[in-house]
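Homework help board

Subject: predicted structure for assignment chain

Our instructor gave us this sequence and asked us to write out the predicted structure in token form, then describe one feature. I got the tokens but I'm not sure how to describe them. Can anyone check?
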Amino acid sequence: MQHYCNSLTNYKRYKTIEVNIGDIPLGGNNPIRIQSMTTTNTMDTIATVEQTIRMVNAGCEYVRITAPSIKEANNLAEIKKELIKRGYKVPLIADIHYTPNAAEAAARIVEKVRVNPGNYIDKKKFLQLEYTDLEYAEEIERIRTRFTPLVKICKEYGTAMRIGTNHGSLSDRIMSRYGDTPFGMVESALEFVRICRDENFHNIVLSMKSSNPQVMVQAYRLLISKMEEEGMRYPLHLGVTEAGDGEDGRIKSALGIGSLLEDGIGDTIRVSLTEPPENESPVAINIANRYKGREFHAPIPEIKTYFINPFEYKKQETFDILSLGAGNVPKVVADFSKFNSIEITDLVKIGYAYEPNTDKWNIADQAADLIYLGDLEVNFDLPNTLKPIYNHAKWLRSSNRADCFPFFNYKEYAETEKKSFVANFVELEINNLSLINKTILDDTVIIVLTTENINGLAENRYCLNYLIENGIKNPVIIKRGYKNLPKEQLMLYSSTDLGGLLIDGLSDGIWIDTFGEHDAQFVNRIQFGILQAARARISKTEYIACPSCGRTLFDLVEVTNKIRERTGHLKGVKIAVMGCIVNGPGEMADADYGYVGSGVGKITLYKGKEVVRKSIDSEFAVEALIDIIKEDNLWIEKK
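My token output:
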């Protein structure tokens, strides 16, 4: 197994070198730092300063500001001067994409410069090119010549540098040799890092961002593995780019960022939301604070042989029971067991609406697959597609056991003879594992894996690896219980705990138990959101929306909401909403359609990475996007 963290079961921060960024050092023994990015026009000094202050007051420790040209880069000096005048010494980061001269100017002013190796010097014209080894080496030398001046300026001025790879903006050269892969992302960054090392410059931070959390997590793991091979330990900036807004943006961010923090990976984080930037830091703080004191978790045995490839997705091999396992999408359990009663109208909350006039059920795309009722009485017929689960004693009293299924703790299951001939839900946790070989798990058992360890993802990982090692292929549902958590923390924590396993192909179902503290509709929506973010089960339209910055050419929040209103019923369609050409065809790597600002009041529309309509007036652009979707026969009318 290639190394990518200190331990798969024992939490400990992965220690990187310390990098100085103004008065707030990063990496080493320092806490996880919080950062965000302004959305104002960089030439509007006062607006940028005032937004920066709001961000700092919300908990932001580093503030990134776009510098698309040398005039914006030079104006960073005025912004910094005004901030100091108002009593704020927050380190500033210049965000650079295509303009080396802007980077070189900014590096003399601010505390850190971010460059994207995919478009800083390299070419990005979506061309398929073939390079001989000699031609490839010549390209690296061309990059060295153009990039080295910036390195020397950073070294002279004590300026830090983030080399930030984005999945969607890999250069044609990298794409031609390595493809659109996590390995290509890593190599894109390391080519620039090696130039820095040749100049004895080590004030470097690295990032591997993607709008797909699975790709993002694999890329960071691979980056650490490659750095270890080459004797590097640079700090890591974590983020899921273009995560979107609202619940979706928070779920996707927590899934990607949290999955890495669980393994002690990450020195600074940025949550990218299509919302005002001062909304980002509180979410990031909520995610980061969870790992304070994590090292004191209950002990978990070390994994000696890891049967899961952390760098490539592969679904855990299980067999089919009740359409759980095998090649089926992961299932969702709705938990009603802590409620006092259940009425037919309550099922609307989990995707089932009964029509008394026709005596039929309308089933939503986000309809739960199983419902745990515990000891509740149900005085109406459930829809056929919703499988009821009862506590074993209650199931024994049922008049029709064939239409429902029992839930056991491990001891009950081992001792009872009265079981279902079809499916038995058996709760297991780490202390039961050693007993599994002594008791036959027959082909009716669906394992419900639970944990109370604060390092629960790692404990679940150990248990799942144990099942694989011992050839146990029964389907597995991951059940997590959460008490006394506000809505946002519930959303963030469960996204990490469940999504962090799903992106590695582990588990056949998910079950969030809030002990009746949260509305069933909210919990059901979160569970489907986690499956969507993990790309494990698609149940709605997906939006890849950039968080806005000073380059943005329209109101991203307003336009994203307008597009969502018109297209939110198109299950499985991925639509990217990008504020400018920098975050255009490259960053929306996974999208089916793209809506990209190309000028003031002008929009360019993409199908995949191909332009299909140029410079449309913004007032007509949403309708034009819908027309393109209709031309592809993917449009359906909203009910």
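Reply (TA_rk): Your tokens look well-formed. For the description, you could write something like this. The longest strand covers residues 610-617. That's the kind of observation they're looking for.
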